[in-house]
């Protein structure tokens, strides 16, 4: 195996590491001694004791290293000979002394921690485990096995003496025992020796009654009881064993081992957790652990310019591990030793900070758990003190050791962090009861170093003669040195000279503030603010620096006015050159113009001014924020006015399309500006200001003041956006009205189909809406659709109302209804436009109902009128005008409607004698469905308000006629008068669809045509129906008014005439009058 190359060691570094022998740890070499004598004493007193300790560790090493590579004794000897300046004769002499020393007692420190999953040997299913531990030579174990009459499970009990057997405690009733017991087992040599551990189950003698009781509670243990009866009385049960060859073990082992069986009955017997470590007893000690570590870090000096990160050579790592293990050193003591060595190494070598931080953290962690021995406490205290003093010495000379370079400055920061961490350690605070103010010590070190540096520079730049030119030149050189130092290091010169200069300068400017002077002071303010942010370089008693902003109060209004006027000028220039065209078209369009982008850029300096000022006083900062917010809002309002003027200038000589395009761009600009205003609180960091002013400004005052300013500006923007959108909407509405009027003029109604007449309007709308969608941002396009739809509905409603008496109104209404449906589809745009809920407003529903009614023929209107009357009859429950009872059915066999008038009750008295002469008229409506059916009448019943008729009538009508829309039986009760027209008692309406035999409730209703005659052989029984009599309300029906307007249709006029006559005879009209 190759040996790592080791450089020649500079012996002066050993003093820096603090390597001291055990015989004279505190003796220091005198500086005035002869160098050769000093080297000889250093070698005799420090190096040779350490060398002997290394040889002793190698000669008596036990086990393999726990981690890393394994090296032979020869390799280790070669390594330490190269690490130390020892000749071959010196090596042999020291080796002879080591071999003549009393050897240590070899020991194996075994920690039995726990076991898991062991066998249950008791009736209860658990065991009472304990362990037997010993170290046996292979020959003794063989003799013990051969001396037995028959194979037995026990080895430790038979082969070892009782005094060499170690036993753990018994853990009762468990399968997962935990011991954590430590045993130290001595042995003579690792060759031919093994570590033995046997686990047994302790059995106590139980009475028969106890065993029977266990049998009751656990019947499955019967087999276990039979087995117990066969074994020797009081004998323990074997659970398993572990055998480990000592020569195969590492110097430290911490593992789980499987419990092995003696037989194959139960191969799986669980696991046992052991910690094994080879240690020495009665060892000859020459040096401390702290001194022992140092030589193994010396080879790292070959890595010049590279910070050491804690790595060590394989040989050194192995020797350290063997030494720590042999002396049974806890991790805490090892960490303290490493810290002592590493901290001394830091004084001579560049060490990575993580190495020191790791040891500090580990020491702090273990300090809370245990305290080290007294000697190590002293070493730790001296080491921490020494490192602090060394660190402060480096800080005082930081200009030379840590120049302001990217590589050196982080090293200074790291050193300060380590010093801070040391002072925070509990160990340092306990070992150093005297107060140690690190901040004061660092300040004193910096001040002392600054004074020394200045004295040195002053001495270097002393004039050689007393000539004035040379004196001025020397002063200039010294001033340049100081200026460069102030620039790079921000040292105490900031405080020494700057405060007085400020005081004198502002005294000269008092009462003379003007714009140019205020502008020149702004860079001064920024510089002082930068210095103020670094609190470490300010004197607490220097108000010129700590309250520097007070000196600039007079200049602050000039700064704000300059920012406002500069921004406003930029906005005006941006609008003047804006052509009001979209910035970018295509797949990713930018729909606003150049001035909107320029405005955002122009407003940014105001936000940046707030960041630059960072005004320290919170209350004044709030007033400053109010002013800045007000300025931004004023600029926004001014921009709106400038933009409107720009539109007027550019649209004077342009056509309609260009003007609309520019108007769309203006709307997009305003919308973009509104989004900028929404982000203003974030850009100005209102939340941060709110936290700063929480104790001086109330929440309500803060929100009301700033939010109201913002809302006011947003309101102006929304008003201008609505105004521009209204302008676009008005233009579109005018064009829509023109198209609607053009397609509904009288001369066009018969000339074109409905689709052809509506076509130009839909083409126009599709073109315009597509254009607006492409040129408006989505928010504004959506907001414009709603008023445009509302105005379109109003336009159609106005046109429909103006032509209500137009001849040919039905065709006209059909065209308008089709137009309304097309507009609805256009504005809905298959779900991409307005939602149906927004489209179907109350005005829309009223218009659609009106046009639907007007688009119907007179016959359809009469049918709808009768259906409405039937509906009123079905919900009419009062009998204030009396009632009539019928027995009615339809015979499909002979197509006859059979009606039997039974009686009438509670009729109104129409004659002067307080009675009436009632009779009943039966008619089938509408007339165009039943043209050949005559009206039938009952006999007159004189002087009777509750007449009994019992008269039957038959109407020859088809089933199709009875099922026609609006088909109904009209029952009219009249009072007979000889001299005048009969008086009206009331009327009732019965839908023929509800009549038995027409409704199709039986099997005959669903019979096929071929079986119709057979199915109708059994007639449906008639139904008795009581119908309350109703009186119509005069002039209350819109259908009658619509029919009345159709003068040229004779049937419609006849129907209206009949209904009007009934309205005149109605008692409802008399009550209203």
Automatic annotation (TrEMBL):
Residues 1043-1052 have a biased composition (Basic and acidic residues). Pfam families: C2, MUN. Keywords: Cytoplasm, Endosome, Exocytosis. It is found in: Cytoplasm; Late endosome; Recycling endosome. The keyword Transmembrane helix does not apply. One of its GO terms (biological process) is exocytosis. Residues 755-865 form the MHD2 domain. Its main location: cytoplasm. It comes from the Eukaryota. GO terms for cellular component: exocytic vesicle; late endosome; recycling endosome. Residues 22-42, 1043-1073 are annotated as: Disordered. Gene3D superfamilies: 1.10.357.50, C2 domain (2.60.40.150). Residues 85-235, 880-1006 form the C2 domain. Belongs to the unc-13 family. This is Unc-13 homolog D. It comes from Gadus morhua (Atlantic cod).
